[in-house]
Amino acid sequence: MLIRTERRGHVLVISINREHKRNSIDRHTADQLDDALNTLDDDPELWVGVLTGTRTMFSAGSDVNANRHYHTDRGGEYGLIRRRRAKPLIAAVEGFALGGGMEIALACDMVVASATSRFGLPEVKIGVLPGSAGLFRAPRSLPVNLARQLILTGDPISAERGLELGLVNRVAEPGTAVVSFRGATILAPDDPRLAAVVAIDVGDKDLQQCADSVIRMHAEWRRAVGRGDVSYKSLSGFPMPYERYRRGERFVLAGKDLAWTGGGRPDDSRATFRGYLDNVFMWANTVGLARDAAKVPRADVRAGDFFVLGGAPGHAVMILDVAVAADGKKRALIGQGYMPAQSFHVIRAADGSPWFSLDGDEVKTPFWAPFPWESLRRLD
Questions:
Q1: Residue 19 catalytic?
Q2: Confidence (pTM)
Q3: Which of 6, 19, 45, 103 is catalytic?
Q4: Whether residues 72 and 194 fall in one domain
């Protein structure tokens, strides 16, 4: 797909996905973008659109090999430039927005850009002028002299400069990498298997791996909703309830198993809770999690459930959300931790979408063997 769409409630996210051609627009891309914008315009359940590109490029505008064959009936150039819209459209720019790419951004109602973004109208450097309304919209969005500078020199400006001049509404940090507990990059922001990184710490020890990440997310959710009385089991089956830990007791290795001892003071602070989890991570693993968590029928799958294959090593991934289509087909957002301990992150399916199909006999993720439905589990 040259244009990908994703519904997020009443928001339609539209992504230009032609990075090997700098997200330039040809006939096929224009038609698909036109279709996506028609859906936004015509569906009453969609209230706002977000138009974006890829991690390194918003768009370079016209594909020079398209011979200007990228007009549509409803949208004009690129399916957008002359469109009469009734719903807000936000440009989410990361990387370069050049030539027609900047004109696409100018055709939107607001622009949010990463700190590494660049905006420019470089057509003059090859002896032509911006042909998709940039000559008119640039002076409306920028001080006239700065618009002339862009058009006459072809030199780009930064996102920060665009913010100062009123072109950009907000500057955001660029895509986030998955990092290890030591701070080393595990997955770069533009890794095709990575959809997002969850803003939750990984600690400074090699503890919060895959099964531990499932426990962490479950425990954080329970504490956030006022149900912080969590309890997990070690590989040996030893119970590790937080209730005893916050009373000042601690579980330590005694011979071949764990045992409770004193040594702490009663406390239910955030630091104590976080310390408890690190201690749980030392003794929990995929084998124990697969054994002790409740098995879940396929038909009952919901957010918070997880797939786990026990082993040394094994792996576990967590279902973060489930969407059900009118025809009953299901897709899920999936997140994971991994080895070594690293940022909990949302992953992408083989087709590049963050939504994994739940309609097959197994669920295939990019980092491990397929998960059969018999491996679906739940923590209460």
A1: no
A2: 0.61
A3: 103
A4: no
